[in-house]
Write a structure and sequence with these properties.
Number of domains: 2
CATH architecture of the largest domain: 3-Layer(bba) Sandwich
CATH topology of the largest domain: FAD/NAD(P)-binding domain
CATH superfamily of the largest domain: FAD/NAD(P)-binding domain
Bound molecules: flavin-adenine dinucleotide
Shape: globular
Structural class: alpha/beta
Strand content: 25-35%
Helix content: 25-40%
Largest sheet: 8 strands, mixed
Length: 378
């Protein structure tokens, strides 16, 4: 292993690899990605694959609108099929109050160019013929939302970054970071030490621990979320369906993948439970009866890294020059990967991102300038 790089990125999930690729694309190639296990082994490989711009905060709507524009052409850009599909997100609302609120959300999203709309049950049935139209009053629909396959996304970014000269090291754990008098860092890893001017913390659920190595306290909470995949089925579903905490989609391989809340979000384990399965099965078959009798193939769990305002922390830390954050996604980091990669790379390489992300800075917590987001699913 080399002993110095211009930039060391900790974490081989979608964030770390997208940042590495975008840096290399800008000619900033003296970059190492350090991953303690295999690429995608963190939250990225556990996620529900969903990509949406239907949020309730202007900041997230804009960020995801721009991310979707990258997702649309990502396979061509990386020369690797990430299986992005604009299948649309269909939210199902079942009370007049929720429909009213959705109307307001839609008007708000439209102001930022996300042209979601309220649809009636008949149109929802045309979009998703398997829907039980007795299970909701109206839908909220945006056809540019979609899905991609997490492991292919990680592989696509990693291959494209490597082609441009980035070193990606797996089975390499960072256990200590020291600052030197010359404003550089010594990153201690299980494969040796690396000197660097810039460290990017893209360590997912471990981001708080990495930041603590430099006395930075990221005020995060880890929420457990369970998820499952059925056996592959012929393509029939169409959009991502969301009703309350329940969500599911059908992947390009035919598996229906999704989750719901099980009241065990505070658990410290990532065990799968039978309670989750029965609750998911009941809720999922209520809206799509055709799923009854389908076989489960796999279930697993992971963490949402929840920040106090459900928005990520992006950009530098004022007190530690050269230490960048790309974490705290609060359950939305997969969909944000492409835009975060671009903006963080612009920040590191050029000193200025093309979209202002200053309000995502870590300092907002100390100043009490929290952002607001209500649409966290699961
Ligand atoms: C059940 C579930 C469903 C989800 N569904 C969605 C969804 O539909 N859409 C969406 O956008 N998001 C979803 N998410 C959230 C999403 O998975 C994450 O926000 C996203 O994957 C974060 O990516 P990341 O690259 O920042 O982190 P990770 O993918 O967690 O990558 C961090 C990497 O850092 C490595 N690492 C940690 N510590 C060290 C160390 N000391 N040294 C070296 N390497 C280290 C880890 O091994 C890991 O591979 C879901 C999450 C869960 C749990």
């Amino acid at each position: 292993m080399r002993s110095s790089y211009d930039c060391v990125i900790i974490g081989g999930g979608v964030s770390g690899l997208a940042i590495a690729y975008e840096l290399a694309k800008r000619g900033y190639r003296d970059v190492a990605v350090l991953e303690e296990s295999y690429l995608g082994s963190g939250s990225t490989g556990r996620c529900g694959s969903g990509i949406r711009a239907q949020f309730t905060s202007a900041d997230q709507i804009v960020l995801l609108r721009e991310s979707e524009a990258i997702w649309e052409h990502l396979s061509e850009e990386l020369e690797y099929d990430v299986h992005f599909k604009a299948c649309g997100y269909l939210f199902l609302w079942d009370t007049p109050e929720l429909v009213d609120k959705a109307r307001q959300n839609v008007a708000f999203q439209n102001r930022y160019g996300v042209m979601s709309r309220i649809i009636d049950r008949q149109e929802a049935k045309e979009i998703c013929p398997s829907l039980n139209t007795d299970s909701f009053l109206a839908g909220q629909w945006y056809d540019k939302d979609g899905m991609a396959f997490p492991f292919d996304t990680v592989t696509g970014y990693a291959r494209a970054a490597r082609r441009q000269g980035v070193d990606i090291m797996t089975s390499t754990r960072v256990f200590e970071i020291e600052t030197t008098a010359a404003h550089t860092f010594t990153v201690h890893t299980t494969q040796g030490n690396i000197e660097t001017k810039n460290v990017v913390n893209a360590a997912g659920p471990e981001a708080r621990g990495i930041a603590a190595m430099l006395n930075v306290d990221l005020p995060y909470r880890l929420d457990k979320h369970q998820i499952m995949a059925t056996e592959p089925l012929e393509q029939f579903l169409g959009p991502m369906l969301v009703k309350g905490a329940l969500y599911y989609l059908q992947t390009h391989r035919g598996n229906v993948v999704g989750g719901t809340d099980t009241g065990d979000q505070n658990a410290t384990d990532v065990d799968s439970t039978f309670e989750f399965l029965t609750k998911f099965a009941k809720e999922a078959t209520e809206i799509v009866p055709r799923l009854a009798g389908v076989k489960l193939m796999r279930q697993w769990a992971g963490y949402y890294v929840m920040s106090p305002d459900a928005h990520p922390v992006l950009g530098p830390v004022d007190e530690v020059p050269g230490f960048f954050q790309a974490n705290g996604y609060s359950g939305h980091g997969f969909m944000m990967g492409p835009i975060v990669g671009r903006l963080l790379a612009e920040y590191i390489a050029d000193g200025k991102p093309s979209i202002d992300i200053d309000h995502y800075n870590f300092r907002r917590f100390a100043r009490g300038e929290l952002l607001t987001e209500k649409a966290v699913i699961g």
